[in-house]
Amino acid sequence: MFLFPFLHESEAPMTARIARALISVSDKTGLVEFAKSLHEQGVEILSTGGSAKAIEAAGIPVKEVASHTGFPEIMDGRVKTLHPKIHGGLLGRRSVSSHMQAMTDNDITPIDLVAVNLYPFEETVAKGADYDTCIENIDIGGPGMIRSAAKNHESVTVIVDPADYGRVVAEMGDNAGATTYETRRALAAKAYARTGSYDAAISTWFAGQLGETFPQRLNVSAELKQTLRYGENPHQQAAFYTNGKNRPGVATATQLQGKELSFNNLNDTDAAFELVSEFSEKPAVAIIKHANPCGVAEGETLLDAYHKALSCDPVSAFGGIIAVNRTLDAATAEEIAKLFAEVVIAPDADDAAKAVLTAKKNLRVLLTGGMATPDEADMTLRSLSGGYLLQNRDAGRVTRDDLKVVTKRAPSEQELNDLLFAFRVGKHVKSNAIVYVKNSTTVGIGAGQMSRVDSSRIAAWKAEEASKNAGEETVRTEASVVSSDAFFPFADGLLAAVKAGATAVIQPGGSMRDQEVIDAADENNIAMVFTGMRHFRH
Ligand SMILES: NC(=O)c1ncn([C@@H]2O[C@H](COP(=O)(O)O)[C@@H](O)[C@H]2O)c1NC=O
């Protein structure tokens, strides 16, 4: 018995003529033009309530699905296309005689094209709609038709995105009203990606409703923003996907100019923009190399902040990524243009700044359209071999009220400001992270060392080098403050900071030897505050 005579790919019909189409769209962009083109190519159009009305209003002949099925749209549209005359017309295999016979026996006519876009569930959730509204925006009939049509792509064309109308119409024009197998297959793949992401959005929303931070099954959906030249290294392939949440940053950025972005560029630029987004009160600049800052500063103007940030480690800043938290102005752009930088990222740039940077053809300039909110709750996902690590984004932000003075001497006002600045920067430095700050400017950063005391020493040494290179008489860590992303396990890290000239320390506290560290601070007249919050970054 020849039950499932599946075609081999090579036997699949090359083209499939479209005699009948079903249009059922929530987003009516391009609908009338599309329906008009189909009509002009002799296609009979079936359509649901609102879509049919729009087509009819444009004077294009259309048949209501209800009159095609002989069954009315019921239950506020919950049931309109869920009918064997629709799904039989989509799923019946034209090459299988028993299927065609079943169609004839049941008065089912083939439907050769389906154009459907779904109830705007994601947008409804994003707007913060109530539970019932979200439920009503779960499309049932639409995904059903999409899945049926896509399964039968051997003969049926499925369109889920108005951006594809033109392509299909053009192809039909070139092929006597037919589409090619290649196009139908590509559209089918796109269709299942759409229903998959739609269901992922629904299951994520449900998990949220149930208060499940970590659902049993994690469904993640993201959209390709761009393929990249290569990955972290040239032998790796890479692409950038966005999650649709539109957090201002690399995901929302438009590239004004410059070379193609690489994987490392994006990773570093993200780090730079997230860091500079920590600061909103004053103009701030962060310069990043290999995802770690080599200079961060607040200033009275952006130019002032840039000069201060650059002064921290101008040697490392070469080839760096520069992020700013204000509209980029011409004066700052002119200074940036003097440095070899890979990327500049800003919420916006004025025309004069844009004009200055055009001279630097290779420099990538990204404009995000806004700043990211540092304490916004979200989840972060990282891949491991064979799995993923999911956690809350580190949205923790220490304020003055959280600080506990643990030493005899309390920090001065100036020290307090710098301590908070340093701790905020330290959150964005790979652990172990030690950050020296003076006047809202980093003066020495020790990142990514396996021992905290090494990070302390490196940060002090970097400051020493920068001071020497700038011909300064005193080392910049003199009378500075220092932050540590986690507690000092021993007094040695603190003593390294004392040796470098720091006068105040900020750290989470919580070590078994806290008292030892506090005593060492008191002995050296250091003011120390505990934050009670750690900012490891691995
Ligand atoms: N229930 C059904 O049988 C059904 N069939 C199609 N839809 C959706 O109805 C919308 C179009 O409705 P209208 O043409 O009435 O504006 C489309 O998003 C389509 O995916 C349905 N709606 C919900 O499931």
Automatic annotation (TrEMBL):
<dbReference type="GO" id="GO:0006189">
    <property type="term" value="P:'de novo' IMP biosynthetic process"/>
</dbReference>
<feature type="domain" description="MGS-like">
    <location>
        <begin position="10"/>
        <end position="160"/>
    </location>
</feature>
<comment type="pathway">
    <text>Purine metabolism; IMP biosynthesis via de novo pathway; IMP from 5-formamido-1-(5-phospho-D-ribosyl)imidazole-4-carboxamide: step 1/1.</text>
</comment>
<keyword id="KW-0658">Purine biosynthesis</keyword>
<keyword id="KW-0378">Hydrolase</keyword>
<dbReference type="GO" id="GO:0004643">
    <property type="term" value="F:phosphoribosylaminoimidazolecarboxamide formyltransferase activity"/>
</dbReference>
<keyword id="KW-0808">Transferase</keyword>
<dbReference type="GO" id="GO:0003937">
    <property type="term" value="F:IMP cyclohydrolase activity"/>
</dbReference>
<dbReference type="InterPro" id="IPR016193">
    <property type="entry name" value="Cytidine_deaminase-like"/>
</dbReference>
<dbReference type="InterPro" id="IPR011607">
    <property type="entry name" value="MGS-like_dom"/>
</dbReference>
<comment type="pathway">
    <text>Purine metabolism; IMP biosynthesis via de novo pathway; 5-formamido-1-(5-phospho-D-ribosyl)imidazole-4-carboxamide from 5-amino-1-(5-phospho-D-ribosyl)imidazole-4-carboxamide (10-formyl THF route): step 1/1.</text>
</comment>
<keyword id="KW-0511">Multifunctional enzyme</keyword>
<comment type="similarity">
    <text>Belongs to the PurH family.</text>
</comment>
<protein>
    <recommendedName>
        <fullName>Bifunctional purine biosynthesis protein PurH</fullName>
        <ecNumber>2.1.2.3</ecNumber>
        <ecNumber>3.5.4.10</ecNumber>
    </recommendedName>
</protein>
<dbReference type="InterPro" id="IPR036914">
    <property type="entry name" value="MGS-like_dom_sf"/>
</dbReference>
<dbReference type="InterPro" id="IPR002695">
    <property type="entry name" value="PurH-like"/>
</dbReference>
<dbReference type="GO" id="GO:0005829">
    <property type="term" value="C:cytosol"/>
</dbReference>
<dbReference type="InterPro" id="IPR024051">
    <property type="entry name" value="AICAR_Tfase_dup_dom_sf"/>
</dbReference>
<dbReference type="Pfam" id="PF02142">
    <property type="entry name" value="MGS"/>
</dbReference>
<dbReference type="Pfam" id="PF01808">
    <property type="entry name" value="AICARFT_IMPCHas"/>
</dbReference>
